[in-house]
Structures are given as structure tokens and as C-alpha cells.
Hints:
nine-stranded antiparallel beta sheet, two-stranded antiparallel ribbon, 5 helices, alpha+beta
Amino acid sequence: xxxxxxxxxxxxxxxxxxxxxxxxxxxxxxxxxxxxxxxxxxxxxxxxxxxxxxxxxxxxxxxxxxxxxxxxxxxxxxxxxxxxxxxxxxxxxxxxxxxxxxxxxxxxxxxxxxxxxxxxxxxxxxxxxxxxxxxxxxxxxxxxxxxxxxxxxxxxxxxxxxxxxxxxxxxxxxxxxxxxxxxxxxxxxxxxxxxxxxxxxxxxxxxxxxxxxxxxxxxxxxxxxxxxxx
Length: 230
């Protein structure tokens, strides 16, 4: 791409623009100063948007399909960190376009992204309905434990301690913490019935048609559940 239109991207349809805008809005709900890293994928035919909502301590990924006029899509070399707010402001849902704002100094997480390849699917992972049930149960447990505290004991430190305990809980023996499912539900990713867990090295990723949530695992391989190549 070159010239004045080089920073304008045409999305596949208004639905892609709307979903991307919703994702950016949710990130900004958790952090008004949020930054996102943009990276070309699929040979420049798609745009991957990475964000890190601080409440969940995970990486969230939304991929948007792109439409020509670029014969070969965006440049494969596109890789930049920008303001999530400025990117959201640039999204034209009706026109299905967005403009890439100027680069910003990336936060530390932006320098450590999940690998592009080498992912293996974890067999035997719970289905979407069961994952939603797990999240509902853990949210209820968190609220119940907070309500049991005396008012003077409901400090930020104590709430954070309870949160770390419940959200770090492993789902079965998958190596995946409950927080990735909670994040997926809160970001609007855990809709429908299609969901899978994949692993690559120290990373684990919950993937749905609406987006992915990834986190680095404490151990390098899941225990108990089998994996199969993607």
C-alpha cells in the first residue's frame, strides 16, 4: 500500500466493522487508555487485533476479514501498536472501513504475543454450554465469598486475593485457567456452540468464531487431556 489511502483498510462487510467496534469498546470499558497491537494475517487478507483487558490478565484477539481493493490485501509487514480509542473512533461501520492511527509506545504485553503456528487442539475440553455453566458458578462463588466478608474486610487486596484464587482455578486437567473463559464471556466471544482449546508451547488459547483468549501456562503441556495437531 502507498499514498494517502495507505492507512485506510476496507473490511469485508459492515458486520466485521461492527464486531471490531464492539470488541474495542469492551477493551476501553476495562481500560480507557488501552492500546492494541495490529498485525497482518493470512497473507494480508485479515487484520488481527490484540488487546489485554487488565481485569482478566489475558490476551484477547479479534480477527477481521478484509476486502479488496488491495489485490493482495494489506502488506504482510503491517505490525503496529496504536491507541484503542483512536482506532475505535476511526471505524466507519456503515462504510466498513477503518483508518490506522499513529503508532504509540507499546505496553510490555505487546512485545510478547502467542505464536502464529504450532497449535494443537485439546481433545475432551468442555463444550460451550458447560463453559458458560462453569463461569456462572465461579462468578456466583466469588460474589458469595465477598458477601461473607465483614464490610471492613472488603479491601481491594482481599478482593484481589479471592479473585486470583477462583479465576486461576484449572478447568479439569487442561492447563487452562477459568479466567480465559470468564474473559471470553465478558468480551462477547463465548456465543453459540463452537469452541475449542488449543495449546502451543507455554501458551493456551480458547478459540471461538468471535475471537480468542490466550494466556501463558505455568506448565508447558496439559495433563490428562490428549492433544491433536491442528
